[in-house]
Amino acid sequence: MNFKRTSIITLALAVCTLTFAQKKPAKVRTITLAGIVVDAATMQPMASVDIDDAKGRNFGHTDKSGYFNIAFEYRQIGEIKFDLRIKKAGYKLFTQKEHWGDLPDGICDLFYFGLQKNHSNARPFSVLGKNTMDKKALAYNLVLTGFGKVREQKAFDNDLEKAKKGNDNVLVKVNDKFYVVDDSGWIGVASDKDMVSIDNKKPVPASQLNKIIKRKKIHSMTTVAAADHKVTIYTSNNFKGKK
Q1: How far apart are the C-alpha atoms of 14 and 69, rounded to whole Å?
Q2: Quick check: pTM over 0.90?
């Protein structure tokens, strides 16, 4: 009788131990994020911008310099997935979806956000930094230094869009430099004399591109290391060399 009672108690303890093992909480990782939020049109910093998660939980907000530094706990095992919602009255909600690898506790990252004001044509944007374990890299002075590069890139993007507006040119000039462009990207060339191949045909000087091909006909383009040309353009309709 005692043996049976002992067996039953042992079995019950084993079941409880197994159940506890199955329900034990996932590891907790703290993620720290910092960055600057600006108006996408003016590139001026925005204060009191809320940083929420997908469920509406608030992580924090920007200060008068547009800077934020937030931390939250991630309670899932494996790869890290989360959404950020950047919002402020008078601006369109911006959602940032992140999918990282199985990174360790204490991981940090840097973000720059540009919000689109209601009724504005300026495109919202996000520029991401690089994962780091060093929280010092998220200090305001370092984040601000990185923002200088973002501002320069966005200024170039705006100038490039102006050069493309109202035309279907493939070769455009921005700040005295030439670029071969399609509807989604660009390739810089040293001059309008650089040679470009279309559908692997005989290369032509970049200066002739606007006469023989329209930007909307480009399917893709790439830089090459060929002896007779530096860029190859591929068309979406088997280009025949006619207008």
Answers
A1: 46
A2: no
